[in-house]
Amino acid sequence: MDPGHFKEGIRLFNRGAFFDAHEVLEEVWRVAPETERKFLQGLIQVAVALHHHSRGNVVGARSLLARASRNLSGYPEEFGGIRLVQLRSSLDHWHSCLTEGRPVPPTPQIEPCVQNPGRPRPERKC
Fold first, then answer.
1. What dotted CATH number matches 3-100?
2. What band does 124 get if pLDDT is binned at 50, 70 and 90?
């Protein structure tokens, strides 16, 4: 995974530039090892879902959030330097709100993991 492009994609996502985040993360996805492709695909799907929502396409947003959740579910709570457990919880809440016609909560953010300085960093995890 290209760390520079990946971080840029996350930065754009957290700023609410979902279309741009999708474009940058797609570049990372194209050259990623197979073990990271579903993870990146899930993040891209979240970005596209939120872009759809911002343009009033609730059906598209709901569908992509469901697919993103499935793709991200195969990874541990922390992966790729981010806290997936919080992101997945936020996505589930958003999906429920869209399905039930309730107002959506604040836009999900992709939070970095907090490293434990006394422990070695496992490869490709936090």
1. 1.10.3450.10
2. very low
Structural domain spans, the chain: 3-100
pLDDT in tens, 7-49: 999 999 999 999 999 999 999 999 999 999 999 999 999 999 9
Please give the torsion angle defined by the CA atoms of residues 49, 104, 112 and 25, in that order, rounded to the nearest 10 degrees. 10
Whole-number Å distance between alpha carbons of 81 and 39: 12
Cβ neighbours of 9 (radius 10 Å): 27
The lowest-confidence range among 2-6, 51-55, 94-98 is: 2-6
The encoded tokens of residue 97 equal: 């709100």
Q: Which of 62, 27, 21, 58 is nearest to 43 (CA)?
A: 21
Task: Give the DSSP letter string of the chain.
Answer: --HHHHHHHHHHHHHT-HHHHHHHHHHHHHHS-HHHHHHHHHHHHHHHHHHHHHTT-HHHHHHHHHHHHHHHTTS-SEETTEEHHHHHHHHHHHHHHHHHTPPP-SPP--PBPPP-TTSPPPTT--
